[in-house]
Amino acid sequence: MALFNTGAMIHELRKAKGLTQAQLAEGICARQTVTAIEKGERKPDWFTFKLIMRKLDVNPDNYFNDIASADDIFVRQQLQKCDKLLLSFDWDALKIEHDKMEKDKRFAKGEGHRIFLGLKANFFNQGKYQNPQLAIDASIERLKMSRTDFDLQLVSTYILTFEEQMALNSLATAYYNLGEHGKCIDIRKNIAISFEQNNEKSLNDAELSFHYFIVVTGLCLNLKDSQRYEECIIWADKAIKLYSGSHNTVFFMRITRYKAFSLLKLGQREEGEKLYIKALLYANIFDEYIEHNFELAKTEFEENFGYKLDLSVSW
User: Fold this and answer.
1) Alpha carbon distance 230, 167 (integer Å)
2) Residue range 254-296, pLDDT digits in tens
3) Residue 210 falls inside a structural domain
4) CB 118 within 8 A of CB 95
5) Which CA distances in Å does 256 have to 53, 106, 263?
6) Closest Cα partner for 145 from 119, 165, 117, 173?
7) CATH no. for residue 11?
């Protein structure tokens, strides 16, 4: 690792945020670890450093070259490779990478293992190799790496790290795939509540609130599919209120669709129809990665409202 005064920097940033060492450590590591880092007695691994800096509202990627080891760099490159395979739905290629990582000691502990568990959960949550129980096991193990006494009943009271939010969201998806919809909804609600209670300022920041939109999008879908339409509208309104053009339009379109569908089911057809068309128009104009989602949404609209929708402009 390159040498620079990591401990002093973390100490000063923590003091500026008004956090105690215990508050900074929560959900990341033991308080004694933060103490040792600040005293210069211990160098943080990349994963720990990344979580600490995120909690201090500093972009950890600015310091990657100063902190990362050769193994850290390899792990990160592998993550980027697997993310591309996930986005392209190349399940066979991803299975090959998964099996290689499972045997690689660089993914047996520390950040490498956390990354592997995250990939495993995402991999087994979808596609031809879907296995919800393996996704649940990987997500829970990932949460236990964060805090050994992690309790799902206390999620709304935790100051969740970004990594914990990701693991919980994967866990919720796995429970949904198993048909345990109530458990899935409860988890996503508690993630969102924790985020709202502990990240009030962050909700207005596009980068920091991005995961909030992912969680609420999934929550609204689950509520809609469970015919809990009033709740779906409540959560959709929260997200729509926060939306800005810097957020991903796919999430905005989906959340708006789920609200429109819920309005229709509650007998508010005209309002739901207008809202649905608004979402389709917005998505069709502003998002370049929307074609597949747009066509699905348009078909859903025509099935639910009973007529063919023409969004072409006469001129």
Assistant:
1) 27
2) 898 899 999 999 999 999 999 988 888 776 666 544 445 677 7
3) yes
4) no
5) 33, 42, 11
6) 117
7) 1.10.260.40
* Contacts of residue 310, Cβ cutoff 8 Å, sequence gap at least 6: none
Looking up residue 288, the CATH number of its domain turns out to be 1.25.40
pLDDT tens profile 41-83:
887 877 788 888 888 888 888 888 777 778 888 988 999 999 9
Decide if 117 contacts 153 (C-beta within 8 A): no
Residues 6+ apart with CB under 8 A from 118: 138, 142, 163, 166, 167, 170
What mean pLDDT comes out for the span 106-113? 88
Task: Kindly state whether residue 102 falls inside one of the protein's structural domains.
Answer: no
* pTM (predicted TM-score): 0.76
Q: Residue 269: which domain range? A: 200-305
Determine, yes or no, domain membership for 72: no
* Closest C-alpha among 220, 218, 198, 217 to residue 208: 198
Residue 137 CA, chain-centre distance (Å), reads 18
Does residue 301 sit within a domain? yes
| Among 41, 64, 87, residue at a domain's last position | 64
Q: What is the pLDDT of residue 306?
A: 86
Instruction: Give CA–CA dist 212/252, Å, rounded.
Output: 12
Number of compact structural domains in the chain: 2
CA 109 – CA 36 distance, rounded (Å): 21
